[in-house]
Fold this protein.
Amino acid sequence: MKALTHTCYMTVRHLRNLARQPLYVMFTIVQPVIWLVLFGQLFKNVVRIPGFGAHAYVDFLTPGVVIMTVLFGSGWSGLGIIRDLDLGVMDRFLVSPVSRLALVTGRLAQLSIVAVIQSVLIIILGVLLGARIPGGITGVLALIGCAVLLALPIGSLSCGMALVTRKEETVIGAANFILLPLTFLSSVFMPPNLLPTWLLDLARFNPVEWAVEAARAALDAHADWTVILPHVALLVAFAVVTAGLATRAFRAYQRSV
């Protein structure tokens, strides 16, 4: 109960810190809008390729942009840890009675809330641009759930890296090095049946692909749960493993101070 209460307090703290950065909030909202509009117009004619399988590219792209936005947002979450380390905030928390678990889970809870808000805004924009959602509210909820299940492990890895390296430049470099390949080694922009064989083989081990495939299957008029549930299970397992790695990184930081 103590850990849960402290997690709520830490989540509110992180949300308040985010609210004090209106420009950052604006950019996190505007960027996916640019992606959806820009990529939607740039690649709109690819639906004419035989076998593409979508009525309009915005139908296909909207869940991909949701997943991509959450991916990049969570991948940069470690920078908040770096800021707390540099300002001595983390050390002050360590000499307080606050739950050590809440120092990590509070940040991940804030990340999940932001992911939900971003997902809802992108889905609304996609619908305004003409995207169809045959899966209805169930499909939308599944898409948001997949986005959160991707945000949690990626955020855990980012926070763990921040605690181990304690260098802003390292976290930024690692994020740039990892996130873009994860995006393009998936079916965010192109259906799996049109991907090169070697890329499709790699995509099977890509958590971004797990989230995208599950989300698109849920948005279909006849949701195929034999596709959705295995991918969701993989995302949950990935989240559990990365949470363990983040916890170990935090314990290593504790021992070093």
Notes: Residues 183 and 208 are 7 Å apart (CA to CA). The chain has a mean pLDDT of 89.
